[in-house]
Description:
The complex is a heterodimer. Chain A has five helices and three strands; from the N terminus they run αααβαββα.
Amino acid sequence: MQCDRSRRYRPRVFNFVLLFVVWILLTDITFGNMLLAAILAYLIPMVVGSLQSAAPRVAKPLKGAGYVLVLLGDIIVSNIVVAKQVLGSLDKLEPGFIAIPLELRQPLPITLLASTISLTPGTVSTEVSADKRTLYVHALNVENEPKLIAHIKHRYETPLKEIFEC
Amino acid sequence: MTLIDLATALFLLIGGLFLLVGSIGLFRLPDFFMRLHAPTKASTLGIGSILMASIIFFSFKGDGISIKEFLIILFMFLTAPISAHMLSKAALHVKQKPRQDTLNLDRLNAIRDRTNWASRS
């Protein structure tokens, strides 16, 4: 793999700012809240820090923004498709488990792909093989298995790969 | 009736519609894995839509733009797929029976053991 794995992502400052801002946005701007926000923003990353795995660098943030927009559009479109399927004849549906061979190797991009698949209606990621090379997905309606796999790989995995430079 | 009212009503209606579809799906679909599809996804969009209505309504009341709803939407989009994944993973491992005509039903044990999809090559 050409990925730079040695770079350990230590976003202490980033996490502090993020938590601080979110807390302030959720409450009102008073001195007490800011004090509480500062304490929490300092303590929470310390507590959960050990859970964090080394994350790859985001190489193309702009592409990431584009990915989110594409995803939002897909969620709306496929929600309508699934709504039709749910309200239509259930016997016509062909549910199935499909296996998606993964090209992504690192935990964070795989997690993002699995979450994307779960967010778009019609597919839920169910399990990943122990060697992290196959993602198992339950689909509500499989019309054409290779086509569906190719669609997911092309539409979501390829951009993720580009975003994370792998 | 102003344009703001109209937009608010429209988003509330769309949100309500998707929530209804999600509930109908939960009721109608035959097995656990299929049922999971309806409430997790339709509800995310439904609640997102209702929150959009809330953003529009309260932003034009004069108290500034309301940001809390954006945060709720963000948190929902972060957490919903995780819970859907955990539910389907749990169902797989407690051996919930999928519908009989489910594609690749014979390979379910391989998936449960987390082996790689061997017979494909």
